[in-house]
Amino acid sequence: MTALPDIQPGLLKFIKNTNARAPPPSESLVFGRTFTDHMLTIPWSLIDGWKEPTIQPYGPLSLEPSATCLHYAQTVFEGMKAYRDDTGKVTLFRPDKNMERMNTSAARLALPTFHGPALLELIKELVRTDKHWIPSEPGHSLYIRPTLIGTQRAIGINPPTEALLFVICSPVGPYYPNGFKPIALYGTTEFNRAAPGGTGAFKIGANYAVGVLPQKVAANKGYQQNLWLYGPEHDLTEVGTMNMFVVFRKPSGGYELVTPPLDGMILPGITRDSVLTLAREHAAGKSPLAELTKDLEVSERRVTMKEVKQAAQDGNLVELFGAGTAAVISPVDRIGYLGEDVLIPTEADGMGPVSRPIWKELVGRQMGAIDHEWSQFVTK
Ligand code: COI
């Protein structure tokens, strides 16, 4: 049997948007509400494999009302960012990781997988096409949203025989409307995001659909995000749409940076991995971070609300933050938990002694200001 065609960048077709617009001023951007002039589409079918990729004007898709993505949430997506520095250099941050994770998510939903480097080449072409949309102000970037959906017309539940991969781009500033200030979390105990053997470790649309109601409950109570607490001991798992880190003071006076382990319920975030890598390299004396103690232990382990509350009472809770592509690093200053607020220390700039040096290095590497293999050149 001959293998079906994979994604072929060489077949790229280009349809120029003749109604191209001028990008709006960066200060008017609301996260994810503005889209650039073009998008990339690549259809797939079981018979033909991956078909001709097309860069075309951003616009509505045509789908059958019976398309499986509309009924059974056959949707996987990625979040990645392109940065433009003040010399005009455009870079992507660890995009190969997004390609790997998208394939893992696609396989979990029985959607077609693809050659990651081929899709990445096409995404770079899309970014080059709309590069004038990338804001270069600090904290701003082009958010890229590759998405793969099942498009087969079918009411029965089966692996789709037709699918569509599309990529859209949105110029963005901070994720939260309060800018880069610390956020307040509401501890969700009545709903679960993920369970053992479930889909929590995959970037699929359904995982985010179940978060909308808890997020609304949190907002109604005056908190910006919900904190997913799992199991009888209320393990801290994820912060709304981000991975989560807690910093405890150790008896030695140093710090322990803790995040829940990848036990199948936690999204293997690329920002999560970057934070862990930077912290571990620092602790090992490789690429040390300025103004951070060497007495830093990095743990992937369970952490419960009891431990967090106790540390807060004892003065040993140093900081708590979320980490994700959209929000980068988002400090937290309180958690609403079973009717009371657990207060989390923050320093004058809203951050803490561990998140600040990590954030500085991360942003330096993301924006291309620090030369590093994580930052991939796209265009000048
Ligand atoms: C991201 O951080 O990129 C995400 O996918 C979260 C999304 C809710 C914006």
UniProtKB/TrEMBL annotation:
<dbReference type="GO" id="GO:0052655">
    <property type="term" value="F:L-valine-2-oxoglutarate transaminase activity"/>
</dbReference>
<dbReference type="GO" id="GO:0005739">
    <property type="term" value="C:mitochondrion"/>
</dbReference>
<dbReference type="InterPro" id="IPR001544">
    <property type="entry name" value="Aminotrans_IV"/>
</dbReference>
<keyword id="KW-0663">Pyridoxal phosphate</keyword>
<dbReference type="GO" id="GO:0009098">
    <property type="term" value="P:L-leucine biosynthetic process"/>
</dbReference>
<dbReference type="GO" id="GO:0009099">
    <property type="term" value="P:L-valine biosynthetic process"/>
</dbReference>
<dbReference type="Pfam" id="PF01063">
    <property type="entry name" value="Aminotran_4"/>
</dbReference>
<keyword id="KW-0032">Aminotransferase</keyword>
<dbReference type="InterPro" id="IPR036038">
    <property type="entry name" value="Aminotransferase-like"/>
</dbReference>
<protein>
    <recommendedName>
        <fullName>Branched-chain-amino-acid aminotransferase</fullName>
        <ecNumber>2.6.1.42</ecNumber>
    </recommendedName>
</protein>
<dbReference type="InterPro" id="IPR043132">
    <property type="entry name" value="BCAT-like_C"/>
</dbReference>
<keyword id="KW-0028">Amino-acid biosynthesis</keyword>
<dbReference type="GO" id="GO:0052656">
    <property type="term" value="F:L-isoleucine-2-oxoglutarate transaminase activity"/>
</dbReference>
<keyword id="KW-0808">Transferase</keyword>
<dbReference type="GO" id="GO:0052654">
    <property type="term" value="F:L-leucine-2-oxoglutarate transaminase activity"/>
</dbReference>
<dbReference type="InterPro" id="IPR033939">
    <property type="entry name" value="BCAT_family"/>
</dbReference>
<feature type="modified residue" description="N6-(pyridoxal phosphate)lysine">
    <location>
        <position position="203"/>
    </location>
</feature>
<dbReference type="InterPro" id="IPR005786">
    <property type="entry name" value="B_amino_transII"/>
</dbReference>
<dbReference type="InterPro" id="IPR018300">
    <property type="entry name" value="Aminotrans_IV_CS"/>
</dbReference>
<keyword id="KW-0100">Branched-chain amino acid biosynthesis</keyword>
<dbReference type="InterPro" id="IPR043131">
    <property type="entry name" value="BCAT-like_N"/>
</dbReference>
<comment type="similarity">
    <text>Belongs to the class-IV pyridoxal-phosphate-dependent aminotransferase family.</text>
</comment>
